[in-house]
């Protein structure tokens, strides 16, 4: 059986401080993903950055607060993102497909099954599904407290469960999960392995990591809570080094590894 992974890449990895696409980072990521696909690994990519790329391209000075402008920026940015992904994957001989999701796609069983069939068909034909929140129409995912996703860490966890992925790899702007915020304490220690997500672990997680992203370490912990009980391993690694994906697939320790509940029960 082929290995199947979901890779989530955040806004801070895909863009520079001014909101423009970081072409060097995204090209490196595409090259690594294309290479591991050629080796037989099935890959789903969950991407952020549509709103950030969109408002920069629209000439707005900062991320808009108004819902209509935010949704417009998402529409503009998603088009730009997919244009870049499609061009780069084509250069490495891979075909990319776009899938935009909202809450109803996961909550409605009929739509969920149709979505699963689409994912499986794309993977069967060696095509990489590129997934993002459908922010241009789904207002709940932008501003509502009553939401299923709300960030792409959580979205990627739901996608991993839907697709039956073996591994969920979150590409962050830091090296992994730390005991303290490494931006505030340079001596903060990296936690290399998490076997149990308890209240102590949750307290260690802070808020949003950067001004450009909507996630943070707490959303990654929530993602781990979702996938690890179902046999899906999760990893947090620095997105500036896409080669770490090779290390994960080869069993080399990098970043922070969240063990699955099933594996823990086996050890006991």
Q: CATH superfamily membership, which one?
A: Acetylglutamate kinase-like
Structural category: alpha/beta
**Segments where pLDDT lies below 50 for 5+ residues?**
207-215, 264-268
The coarse overall form would be globular
**Largest beta sheet, briefly?**
8 strands, mixed
Count of discrete structural domains = 1
Task: Round the Cα radius of gyration to an integer and report it.
Answer: 18 Å
At the fold tier of CATH, the topology name is: Carbamate kinase
Query: What CATH architecture label applies?
Result: 3-Layer(aba) Sandwich
How much helix is in the residues? 40-55%
CATH class: Alpha Beta
List keywords for this structure.
Carbamate kinase, globular, alpha/beta, single chain, two-stranded antiparallel ribbon, eight-stranded mixed beta sheet, disordered C terminus, 268 residues, 45% helix
Topology of this protein?
Blueprint: E1 4-9, H1 11-14, H2 23-38, E2 42-47, H3 50-57, H4 67-91, E3 95-101, H5 103-107, H6 109-124, E4 127-133, H7 140-143, H8 152-163, E5 167-172, E6 177-178, E7 190-191, E8 193-194, H9 199-204, H10 217-227, E9 233-238, H11 244-249, E10 256-258, H12 261-267
Parallel strand pairs: 1-2, 1-5, 2-4, 3-4, 5-9, 8-10
Antiparallel strand pairs: 6-7, 9-10
Helix pairs in contact: 3-4, 8-10
Domain Aspartate/glutamate/uridylate kinase: 4-238
Pfam families: AA_kinase
GO molecular function, one term: ATP binding
């Amino acid at each position: 059986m082929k290995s199947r992974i979901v890779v989530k890449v955040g806004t801070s990895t895909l863009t520079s401080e001014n909101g423009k696409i970081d072409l060097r980072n995204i090209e490196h990521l595409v090259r690594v993903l294309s290479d591991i696909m050629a080796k037989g690994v099935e890959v789903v990519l969950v991407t952020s950055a549509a709103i950030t790329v969109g408002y920069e391209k629209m000439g707005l000075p900062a991320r808009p607060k108004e819902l209509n402008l935010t949704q417009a920026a998402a529409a503009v940015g998603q088009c730009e993102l997919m244009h870049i992904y499609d061009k780069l994957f084509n250069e490495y001989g891979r075909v990319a497909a776009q899938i935009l999701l909202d809450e109803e796609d996961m909550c409605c069983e009929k739509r969920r099954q149709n979505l699963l069939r689409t994912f499986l068909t794309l993977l069967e034909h060696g095509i990489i599904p590129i997934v993002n929140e459908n922010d241009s129409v789904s207002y709940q995912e932008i501003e509502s407290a009553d939401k299923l996703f709300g960030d792409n860490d959580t979205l990627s966890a739901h996608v991993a469960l839907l697709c039956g992925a073996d591994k969920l790899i979150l590409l962050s702007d830091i090296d992994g999960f730390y005991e303290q915020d490494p931006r505030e304490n340079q001596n903060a220690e990296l936690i290399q392995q998490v076997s149990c997500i308890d209240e102590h672990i949750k307290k260690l997680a802070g808020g949003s990591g950067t001004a450009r992203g909507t996630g943070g370490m707490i959303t990654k912990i929530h993602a781990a809570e979702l996938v690890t009980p179902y046999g899906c391993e999760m990893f947090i690694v620095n997105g500036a080094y896409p080669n770490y994906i090779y290390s994960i697939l080869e069993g080399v320790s990098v970043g922070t590894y969240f063990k699955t509940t099933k594996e823990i029960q086996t050890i006991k």
